[in-house]
Amino acid sequence: MKNVKSMLVPVLAWGLLVSFISCPCGRAAERKPVELIPREVLFGNPVKTGPQISPDGKRLSYLAPVNDVLNVWVKTVGKDDDKAVTKDTDRGIRIYFWAQDNRHIMYLQDKGGDENWRLFAVDLDSGGTRDLTPFENVQTQIVASDKHFPNELLIAMNREDPNVHDVYHLDLRTRDLKLVAKNPGNIVGWVADAQFKVRAAMAGTPEGGFDLLVRPREDVGWEKIVAWSAEDSLTSAPVSFTKDGDALYLIDSRNANTGRLVKMGLADKQTEVLAQDPQYDVSDVMIHPDTYQVQAVAFTRARTEWTVLDDSIKDDFQAIAKLDRGDFAVSDRDNADATWLVSFTKDDGPVSFYAYEPVTHKGTFLFVHKPDLTKYELARVEPISFKARDGLTIHGYITFPVRRQRKGLPMVLSVHGGPWARDSWGYDPEAQWFANRGYAVLDVNFRGSTGFGKEFLNAAIKEWGGKMHDDLIDAVDWAVRQGIADPDKVAIYGGSYGGYAVLVGLTFTPDVFACGIDIVGPSNLITLLESIPPYWAPVLDMFKTRVGDHTTEEGRAFLTERSPLTYVDRIQRPLLIGQGANDPRVKQTEADQIVAAMEEKSIPVTYVLFPDEGHGFARPENNLAFSAVAEAFLAPVLGGRFQPVGDDFRDASIQIVTGAEHVPGLPDAPN
Length: 671
Fold this sequence. Notes:
Elements: H1 5-8, H2 27-31, H3 39-43, E1 49-53, E2 59-66, E3 69-76, E4 83-84, E5 95-98, E6 104-109, E7 118-123, E8 129-131, E9 140-144, E10 152-157, E11 166-171, E12 177-181, E13 187-192, E14 198-204, E15 210-214, E16 223-228, E17 237-241, E18 247-252, E19 260-265, E20 271-275, E21 282-287, E22 294-300, E23 304-308, H4 314-321, E24 327-333, E25 340-345, E26 352-357, E27 362-368, E28 381-387, E29 393-399, E30 409-415, H5 429-436, E31 440-445, H6 454-458, H7 467-481, E32 485-495, H8 497-508, E33 515-519, H9 525-530, H10 540-546, H11 553-561, E34 575-580, H12 588-600, E35 606-610, H13 620-638, E36 655-658
Parallel strand pairs: 30-31, 30-32, 32-33, 33-34, 34-35
Antiparallel strand pairs: 1-2, 2-3, 3-4, 5-6, 6-7, 7-8, 9-10, 10-11, 11-12, 13-14, 14-15, 15-16, 17-18, 18-19, 19-20, 21-22, 22-23, 24-25, 25-26, 26-27, 28-29, 29-31, 35-36
């Protein structure tokens, strides 16, 4: 299974898994209250999630809490011998995988959200854990793992130069590291072939595009075979080599509006289109692990839809679709291809996981990630679209409170991060949280969101705080015109770019929103670009092209104009800010400086800081604490329900730096 999303926007993912049908609207329905869903159910740890099958198919792993901290568990297929094999006691493990030797569980972990990931290996025979990359201030990335090379890994580290990642061959038996691909200074992603050799790379260009580089062997130089301009840079990427290494599968938007799946011969540079859609980019590709043939391609339209290209799996996809409702994905396969792991995402229920056997076309239910969700009445997520003021079609989703009339509701405009990302259909704990508290929730894929083709994506170039914000205002106007939203009770909420959108909303259009909640959002685009992580240097030119050039006088003037910090004195409505002290992407300075400016002008603000978090809140205790503050902050402004804070501060690192008095019912934060 190849996940093309990780290559489409290298290192730029800013940002931060029993159905009930809503009854018809009417006065009788209004009189029956919907039970308040506890924050612990929505934002606490899953009971089980992230299952993976061992390469030999004999064991199943998954993530589950140990003393309220997520760890990796392993069990023998067909037995109840589940056992925790990792011993994390702090942030919890979120990224793990099986080594192909069937003996090791590998996982990545950072410190306090600093994103300097280290690679650890757990020996399932001895129970011991080894730090395979014990280097301070170094980030480790996984490049490749291959069933045919069971004792090896390819990893990338910025060990020699903090600005770039080189590729190393790691021997799991000896722990020896060998440099196999030196980064010349502009490479942001690597691709290995079927022989486990690094033979393709994505290199950033001064114009904000990417060059695709290929070499026949690791001991010869690179050849540029594709030049993706800035126009195509975020809708194009390499996916995989063919088995013989003579061709590459690419997502390619050259000569088209959308990212199509193509096969390119390396000798003649000719391309064959394998799958395409006129409006939507390819969002995922399923490749056979032995033949390297493309088997299926996904397009994320209003929902995820699969196109099967390999007739041998048509019956499998039909059988899988009958196992459960919702949108499915094949997340893992054992080496014999005898067991597939499948997940189903629903809008109004937990994610469910199954083991599927292609030979018998039968599936076995494994678990749902949060079974307690089935005790509550969850809301449905409905796709919507509208025309922006310049005629561009904008897509999104709306979630209504259960058993409430769909007229004149308080509403939360929820803005996704990225901005080179998108909202999709499925279970969203934040949407369910807001809807359960009595608010309509509007998620908008404003211009610049990915998946809708390059024309839509590129309509956002240098439009931070411009047309991208206009789309959000047009979304609010649409909801008001439809009679859905009370125009006096609309909040704006978001993290990362979404946090920036919150600050823009309260400064550029101060009369539109009743309040705002900003999580790790930049307030000054100049200081943001001046403080990005050093290993983002290869894509800095892309930021200059798409956001603005902070190195020129003209560019700095433009970025100042588009920075919320410039217009602090316009803020009229309540603002809540949440920040992680170790955030490497949006530094704490971004929150500190706007809070200081507001306090200097005697403008009320509530500022919540977590000293052990980074770009978002990974520890469930911190997530619960911030959510408690947020819903207490919203309730008096929008008139919704809220659950008292209770003891949700107990195990959190929360520090209310300023403005506790603006949120009713807050206890003292622990010191």
